[in-house]
Amino acid sequence: MENFALMNRQVQYKYLPQGNEQGASRLTSQGERSPPFSSHQHIKEHQLSYPQTPTMKSTTYSLTALAGLLALTHATPLPAVVVAPTDLALRQCGSQWYNPSSYACRAGADSNALCPVVNGEPMEECAGACYTPYRYNCNGTDLSEKPRKASGTFTLTASNPDQDFSGQPIQASGNHFWVGGHAATYCPSNVGSICSSFPNDMTLIGNGYMATVVPGGQSIYWQKDGALAFTQAHSSSQWNLSYYGGGIAYEGGGYFGPNGEDLVTCPVVPPGSNTTAWQLFARLAGVSFSSSCVGVYALVHDQNITAGAWQYT
C-alpha cells in the first residue's frame, strides 16, 4: 500500500473586532459577573489542505489500515497571539480592554474588576460588587444600605461631573424642582418680621414636605411622568399623582425616587419663560425619557433650620 503524505499545511490567524468598544465584563450589585465583553477577539483558523488522491494499484483498503494512518496524525497546538486593540482610547484592566468613559478599573476582592460609570461618576467596588456610596456603605467585605433620614430638613445639590450644572442647588419653582436657578417664594406683608428670618434663595425640604410655615403646609409628590412636584399653599390638590410623598433620602448620601429609582434631569422650558431649564424627574417604571435627558445624583445636605420660606410657589 502506498503511504499518504500530509501536504500544504497552512495556519492562519485572523484579528476580528467584536464591535463593543466599551468592552469587558462588569459586576452586578449582587456580585455576579455579567458575560464578558472583549473589545477584540482573536479567531484562530487552522486550515488543512490535502493533495488529490494519487492513483492506486488497488482502491480497496481495510478499516484497520485507515485507523492506523489516523493514529499517526498529531495536532500541533497553535500559539497564543495577543494583539492590542486599534482604538487608542481603550485601556487594559487585567486581561480585559475597556472604555474609560464607561468603566473604571477597580482592584479589590475581585481583582481588577470593572465597574460602570453612572451619572458621570465611577461606581466603587466592595467584595466583588459595584455600588454607589450615595446609597450604600462598605465595611470591606459587605454592602449595607445607608441609614434613611427619619427627620430633619435638608437641601439638595445636583451631581454629574460630565455636566456644567454639577454642584448647583436643586430649587423649587412653579410647583416643580429644577437644577440651578432660584427658589420661588412668597411671604405676605401682614405676617410681620418673620419674613426676614428665612434664608435667602434656599429650597428646604423634609421627608415628603416642603419646609414652610404657611398654614396647611405644602406636600411633595411624584407625578405620572416622573416629575417631582409640590402642592400649592392652601391646597391639597396633587395633579397627575403617581406617588404621594417625597423620595428616599439617605444620611450623608443621596436622594432617590419613591421606590429608590434613579433620578434624571431633562431640558424643559418652564411656563412663562422663554429659556430652557433642567427639570428633575425619577425613572419611574413605565416612563421613558428623551435622549436629551441625563442622569443625575441629588446629594443630601442636612440643615439645622426648620423652614426655608413662608411658602414656595
TrEMBL record:
Organism encoding this protein: Aureobasidium pullulans (Black yeast)
Single Gene Ontology MF annotation: carbohydrate binding
Source taxon at top rank: Eukaryota
InterPro entries for this protein: Eng1_septum (IPR018909), PhiA_domain (IPR052820)
Domain Endo-1,3(4)-beta-glucanase 1 carbohydrate binding: 92-142
Protein name per Swiss-Prot or TrEMBL: Endo-1,3(4)-beta-glucanase 1 carbohydrate binding domain-containing protein
Biased composition (Polar residues): 21-40
Pfam families named in the record: Carb_bind
